[in-house]
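Re: folding output
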Amino acid sequence: MNPEKKQFKNIDEYISDFSVEIRILLEEIRATIKNEVPEAEEVISYQMPAFKYHGILVYFAAFKNHIGFYPASSGIEMFKNELSEYKTSKGAVQFPYNKPIPFNLIAKIVKFRKDENLAKVKLKSK
């Protein structure tokens, strides 16, 4: 690991490291996730903001030209049609700064991931 790379202790610290415009977007994503799963725990994992609820729900991070959103491969697969206008990989999607961030879609993906994590918990308890 690069010793000069900043180590964030919490999401507030992570967000504060960016320009006002990017901070606003990150806070809106954070609020969208919290609105969908208010009981989720905020954490920093892999030096990115993440939310946990019976396991990781999603990660998100700011980059030079986009917001990276990481809802696991299941989240990408389930919403592949709605995500088709964005660059995606197996477990990630890039929301470019030159397009509106799809907060409603983020909310739907987070709800899906919450339900998925709860289903896994129920399966384990049987």
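--- second protein (sequence, then structure) ---
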Amino acid sequence: MAHCPDPCLSCAGPGLKRVLSVLGDDALARAAVASSRELVVLNPGVDSIAGTAAQVRGLATGDPALLSEAVVHFRRSPRRLALASALEDDGNALAELGERDTGIAELSEALELYAELGASWDAGRVRARLRALGVRRRVGNTTPARIGWEALTTSELDVVRLVALGLRNREVGERLFVSPHTVSTHLRHAFTKLGINSRVELARLVSQHEEPSV
């Protein structure tokens, strides 16, 4: 059972941080970050708590790596609304960093989840963000794959193909003209979607699905 030292701050998590950012209350934002960190210490190995902590810290510091980490944690937890929130924040961050395709893919997945869960206000916000990026999305009756090979975005596929050839993150980044951090983010997401933990396993899956290409 999870221990919560401050339900108001830590359990509200990212939603609270968004409110605080609008209100400009830095003191409460710092308190939310500290509380979420304390929860992780008290509840090691709980993905929903680790995801909340990473997301709150990522929003507070503007660190995109933490937002991507939150997505990874929430994919392993049953909290689907929290996953949608993390995908939204990570998608926005990636789009702002120039990773437009991956950002749009994550925002689209967030939209599908919000709509499926009946979070119409959140869905409307994400739909508006997608329109600002030049994309119109209608939520249909089919849900895009979230796990497995079919769930990989174009950018993630580009990365895993090169990693399967034995290239390091820096070398992959040089070939794709992105930063090593971006490569690491795509790789983490790919590992989670594929349910693997090593590059050896990744190379095996790539060989099963397609011929690796330079």
